Amino acid sequence: MSDALTSLTIAQAAAKLAAGETSSVELTDAHIAAMEAHRDLNAFITETPDLARARAAESDARRASGDARGPLDGIPIAMKDLFCTEGVLTTAASHILDGFTPTYESTVSRKLREVGTVMLGKANLDEFAMGSANVTSYYGPVKSPWKAADGKDRVPGGSSGGSATAVAANIAMAATGTDTGGSIRQPAAFCGIVGLKPTYGRCSRWGIVAFASSLDQAGPMTKTVEDAAIMLSAMAGYDPMDSTSADKPVPDFAAALTGDIKGLKVGIPIEYRVEGMPYEIEEAWQKGVEWLKDQGAEIVEVSLPHTKYALPTYYIVAPAEASSNLARYDGVRYGLRVEGGDLTEMYEATRGEGFGAEVRRRVLIGAYVLSAGYYDAYYLKAQKLRTLILRDFTDAFDKVDVLLTPTAPSAAFAIGEKMDDPVAMYLNDVFAVPASLAGLPAISVPGGLSSEGLPLGLHLIGRAFDEETVLRAGQALETAAGFTARPAGF
Ligand code: GLN
């Protein structure tokens, strides 16, 4: 019974709740049991079962009195531990935020709470969301529920690795993620789930621990495209507390899922054929092309000539913003303090001990590219390239409605691999970062399995604020792919 409950999608569970066939308490208990049974995956930093049961009971009471709040009322979800949650420890997976319990709720988590979702706990991630494998967390790596034939544990991707694992392992019905340069889409691809990065400005960043403010964006991680649409409708919307949040109406995204993509113009960027990419990625991409064509889409080759500069541009802009955002962790205002002889020593000791190696690397790179002598050569040049990358997309979207690419250049690798080679790790983001730099919406949908039996993702990028087309085309891929594979034992 409880296995059946944890395998439901949001849409299915909402129907059962509405029909009185299950209760939120029942659903929540089944998911708490799964969370406890799979602690070895390390998907959560903080579990909140008591809070979850209390919110589930409130949801059931609302429903009993005819006040249910829509499809998310009573649905158990995981919250990436980058969202500040009132009264619940918020760590960003960093030692430096030890003991930080916010007195306020981030806008996105508040919105999700207001529509009745039940938070199961705070999901593990890469420290300050910096990483592509969830191996930089102070709280230890997250394991993917998927195993390849060699039996070695796989990374879930990052930085939203705990969120992806929780959804893929049927521990949470859905999860929140954040995406700065791929952190929703790449883990979704590695774990065989759906991940949507909305347009920059679609969801409020207020109350989300900042990594790179001009790139950070919250979004849903779900089992299906329909569930992503349902979650996004609840998460999105203008927020006066975030000056970059867009004052645009929020459509009913699920209503956009008409199943009809006839005449849709799908662009295939020729520059995304990167050297050394495994053949099976190329093959999965080609299948995606055929699936969309079969459903009436028109395929058009397009050129995004500045693609090769996206990764270096991202790895200048993101660390620059991170070094400035992370300046606030000084041992005075939040979390950890390591005493020193004087104030400066205290700052140094706190930051030296509080930040892990990857975060320190980013702060160093960021401070370097922003420093007086190098600002023009690196940061300013990266800003100019960012404009050119955006222009590539603007030109492409004169001709097409959506772009199709692979999500990542490989399937999930083993835990421990690439850890001594930051550049190899950064290469994971090669297909994800251009859309991040341009602020465009993009989705990853499971497209099949690799030769080792691991999920591969297909990636669609859309016009700014046109999540509806991205979702509609995403569902067309989902339907054609018919991806029903499950990690063994889950
Ligand atoms: N993997 C990328 C990085 O390490 C993206 C992270 C993210 O999107 N938060 O910066």
Topology:
Layout lengths: L1 H5 L3 H9 L5 H14 L6 E4 L1 H16 L11 E5 L26 H8 L3 E6 L37 H8 L5 E6 L5 H7 L2 E4 L19 E6 L2 H11 L29 E5 L9 H16 L3 E5 L7 H16 L17 H12 L2 H14 L5 H24 L2 E5 L15 H5 L6 H6 L3 E8 L5 E8 L4 H15 L9
Parallel strand pairs: 2-3, 2-4, 7-8, 7-9
Antiparallel strand pairs: 1-3, 4-6, 5-6, 5-10, 9-11, 10-11
Helix pairs in contact: 3-4, 6-7, 8-16, 10-12, 10-13
Bound molecules: glutamine.
The site of glutamine has 13 residues, from loops.
Q: What can you see in these coordinates?
A:
With 490 residues, the protein is of the alpha/beta class. Among the domains are: 257 residues, Amidase signature (AS) enzymes (Alpha-Beta Complex); 76 residues, no CATH class. Helix content is 38%, strand content 13%. It is built from 16 helices and 11 strands. An 11-stranded mixed sheet has the order 1-3-2-4-6-5-10-11-9-7-8, sandwiched between helices. A hairpin with a 5-residue loop joins strand 10 and strand 11. Helix 3 packs antiparallel against helix 4, helix 8 packs antiparallel against helix 16 and helix 10 packs across helix 12. The radius of gyration is 21 Å and the shape is globular. It starts with a helix and ends in a 9-residue tail after the last helix. The structure holds glutamine.
